[in-house]
Amino acid sequence: MDYPERYELVFQALAVEDDVVVVRRTEKAGAGGYPVYEDESGIVRAEISDRGEVRMLASGGHQAPRTPLLARPLSP
């Protein structure tokens, strides 16, 4: 399967514009077997399926990652 290289993850923010985080595909796969994507800092991590379903992954202790409203594939 061919997966996009990058996605925009759109998170709803209260009383301001939505937060948008760009993530890139890594060489890792998540528990579901789909690619793991992460932002430049390595803090925002997500497994994204071939149907665009997102499972957020904690990158450190005491995190409670929120699920984005939307995952948009970006062209290279």
Protein model, in words:
With 76 residues, the protein is mainly β. The protein has one domain (4-71). 0% of the residues lie in helices and 45% in strands.
Report the major sheet.
6 strands, antiparallel
Overall mean pLDDT score?
Answer: 92
Which segments are poorly predicted (pLDDT under 50) over 5 or more consecutive residues? none
Helicity level, as a percent range?
under 10%
Kindly give the count of domains. 1
User: How many strands in all?
Assistant: 6
The value of Rg in angstroms is 12 Å
Features:
DUF6296; 76 residues; mainly beta; 6-stranded antiparallel sheet
Architecture blueprint of SSEs:
Blueprint lengths: L5 E6 L7 E11 L5 E4 L6 E4 L5 E4 L12 E5 L2
Antiparallel strand pairs: 1-2, 1-6, 2-3, 3-4, 4-5
Summarize the structure.
The chain has strands at residues 6-11, 19-29, 35-38, 45-48, 54-57, 70-74. The chain has 76 residues and is mostly beta strands.
